[in-house]
Design goal:
Two copies of one chain form a homodimer. Chain A contains six helices and three strands, in the order ααβααββαα. By secondary structure, chain A is mostly helical. Chain A is globular, with a radius of gyration of 19 Å. The structure holds a DNA duplex.
DNA sequence: TATTGTTATACTCTATAACTATA
DNA sequence: TATAGTTATAGAGTATAACAATA
């Protein structure tokens, strides 16, 4: 794939092609995931929030890890609360609200993971070794992206000084 | 990454996690790409259309390969035509309109690829071998997705019976 | 009758700005 | 003064349905 030795900035062009290929592939995966998620009665954004909530997290944290604005998380939390999937829990810092999965929310999260896996047709084209390789590569890239919940060892329960903020 | 031997449907769960990781990573790449594209004066959808148009393609084909509706491509084509990046060319089947990059369009496409490559910070974390591996994996997955332009050897210029339709 | 591209319209996702309550 | 969450609103992206021209 990497076309070698064709002058300057060729490397950027190759990287550009790789980025475009990644977008194209991920769009198809996204469509697979969206189908699985909708058949579980959720929209994609709501589902992604549920999948992010392995641990209770301040809404602000969720906004960061979802890459969206705080205001958007309000609506997401409303939707999830209506469905009985999360609870808002006031933090020690009383400005903060943590989102915590209910038992129903945890069940749905597990079901979502299975459903998404079963519906991911594009990933089915890879054998076990290839999946491992892909996971490793993506992890290298994603390393450093903001994590879902609180950084380990945060001084108090509401993780006051999360990575970089 | 693949947690082995923990009961049934564990494989689906692992696949689900991989799909979620892919979405998360691709979102970050998308953000990188969007920045590069905007600094070239285009929106992301317009840019993706330009990048898809290595060869002139019927609008319907572009809709398929972009994974969107025909009606949306009308607006995309309008935007690109306004900027002098593409021309609409009536096909042999006179219902069909091909989108063809102008010289300015081709120049911009090349510039976009360079700009995107230079702005893809996440991909910069991979060395050459890792990029090749990623490209290979993504290609395996994307193989079979509808191609941008006409399938090679289409009977007449407007590729009447494109893959599967 | 079926298909291409177009138009008009509406919906979903998401951000911006201003507000409140804490800190 | 700065930050967390909320509200109201606006914008981007995209689809749906009905239509004209062509096959």
């Amino acid at each position: 794939m990497t076309t070698t030795g064709q002058g300057p900035s060729t490397r950027d062009v190759d990287t550009g092609r790789l980025a475009v290929l990644l977008l194209r592939t991920s769009d198809a995966v996204r469509a697979d995931v969206a189908r699985a998620v909708e058949s579980a009665g959720l929209t994609l954004p709501l589902a992604r929030a549920v999948l992010q909530l392995d641990e209770p997290a301040p809404m602000r944290n969720l906004a960061d890890s979802l890459g969206c604005d705080r205001s958007y998380v309000t609506g997401v939390a409303d939707g999830l609360e209506e469905r009985g999937l999360v609870q808002r829990v006031t933090g020690q810092d009383r400005r903060v609200k943590l989102l915590r999965l209910t038992p129903a929310g945890r069940d749905l999260r597990d079901e979502l993971l299975r459903g998404i896996g079963a519906a991911s047709h594009l990933l089915e084209r890879l054998n076990d070794a290839e999946r491992d390789a892909l996971a490793t590569l993506l992890s290298s890239m994603a390393d450093g992206l903001l994590p879902s919940a609180c950084p380990i060892g945060s001084a108090d329960a509401d993780c006051p000084d999360a990575a970089g903020r």
